[in-house]
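Now read the record:
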Amino acid sequence: MRTILASLVALCGAIIIVGNSSGSADVLGIALACFMTFVIAAMTVAVRRHRDTPMVAAAALSNLLGSIVSIPFAHGIASVSATDLMTLALFGFLQVGLGLSLFVLGSRLLPSGQATLIATLETPLMPFWVWLAFQETPTARALIAGALVMGAVVADIAGEMRAQKR
C-alpha cells in the first residue's frame, strides 16, 4: 500500500512535468513515454519473475532493438559531427546501456513496484544533470515535480526500512 501511494505521488509529479504540453508533437511524445513506462514495468516484473535467468544479455538486446526502432525518428542524423557522435555514443553506453544493466541486476533484489518507483528518480535527476553539465537552470515546475517524485521515493524507502526493522 505504501509503494502504491508513493507511486501515485510520483505520478502527480510526472503530470506536473507534462501538464503544460500542447501540440501534436507533445501528445505523441507523451504517448510514447506512457508506452515506454508500461514496457519498463513489464520488464521489471519479468526480471523479478525469472530471477534465475540471466537478464543482462536481454537488456543489451533491448537496447540494440530500441536503437534500431529509434532510427526513423532521428531526423538529420547524417549531419551529426564526430564530437557529437562521440557524446551520443557515451550517452548510449553509460546512461542507457550501463544504467539499464544495473537496473536489471538491482531489480532482482527488490519488489517490482519499489524497483520501478526507484527508477522514476531518473526523471527529476535529468534537470540536475543538465544544470550541472550545461548550466541550464530548471524551471520552477521541474523543481516542484522533481521534489514530489524524489520525496515519494525517499518516503517509500524510509517506510520499507522501518518495516524491516520491526
